[in-house]
């Protein structure tokens, strides 16, 4: 049976399947949608992708995405530079920033410890983090890694790594029952975490 699309379109669709969460069907829909757009719109999209790739870097201090040597958060004197929140990816910074409830600064690991994938402390460049904390300005470190096996292992490793800095308060973000949900629908692991992380009222 002949393939319904040209070799060029097949290659384009295959390239989209390399994006997270995009399977063959989604890739097909994206390509067909792009082909329906005006040429100017598609060229503008291609230009933005190319320019973003060429002009976006990792912040020299925290590893967040930035178009300068220092990201806008690290460069903001109005933020509390004594509170450091450690996250796995730049998208986690974006999520926390959208809450509007954190005014400290960040350190982005660009991953999590995963021996099966060959990601250890060296791959996460934890020596940069230790050096940053050792500079003496940080008073509290918030471990905001993901609530999964890799994230928990990373948080535990970081907690041990930071023990020599006795003056620094090390905390882990709370986990528990989502707002607006019913207890009967919450999974057992989440309920257990909620009970363990209960606070005084």
Helix-strand blueprint:
Blueprint: H1 7-16, H2 24-36, H3 39-55, E1 57-58, E2 65-66, E3 83-87, H4 90-99, E4 105-108, H5 126-134, E5 140-143, H6 149-161, E6 169-172, H7 188-196
Parallel strand pairs: 3-4, 3-5, 5-6
Antiparallel strand pairs: 1-2
Helix pairs in contact: 1-2
* Percent of residues in beta strands: 5-15%
CATH-derived topology of the domain at 79-172: Dna Topoisomerase Vi A Subunit, Chain: A, domain 2
Helices, by number, come to 7
| Overall helicity | 40-55%
- Strand order within the widest beta sheet: 4-3-5-6
Would you list the SSEs in sequence order as H and E? Answer: HHHEEEHEHEHEH
In the CATH hierarchy, the architecture of the domain at 79-172 is 3-Layer(aba) Sandwich
Radius of gyration, rounded? Answer: 21 Å
Overall morphology: globular
N- and C-termini, Cα separation: 68 Å
Q: Which features characterize this protein?
A:
alpha/beta; 40% helix; 201 residues; Dna Topoisomerase Vi A Subunit, Chain: A, domain 2; four-stranded parallel beta sheet; globular; Helicase, Ruva Protein, domain 3
Describe the model.
With 201 residues, this protein is an alpha/beta fold. Among the domains are: 7-50, RecR Domain 1 (Helicase, Ruva Protein, domain 3, Orthogonal Bundle); 79-172, Dna Topoisomerase Vi A Subunit, Chain: A, domain 2, CATH 3.40.1360. It has seven helices and six strands, in the order αααβββαβαβαβα. It has helices spanning 7-16, 24-36, 39-55, 90-99, 126-134, 149-161, 188-196; strands at residues 57-58, 65-66, 83-87, 105-108, 140-143, 169-172. It has a four-stranded parallel β-sheet with strand order 4-3-5-6. A two-stranded antiparallel sheet has the order 1-2. β1 (57-58) and β2 form a beta hairpin. α1 packs across α2. It is globular and about 65 Å long. The model has no long low-confidence stretch (mean pLDDT 91).
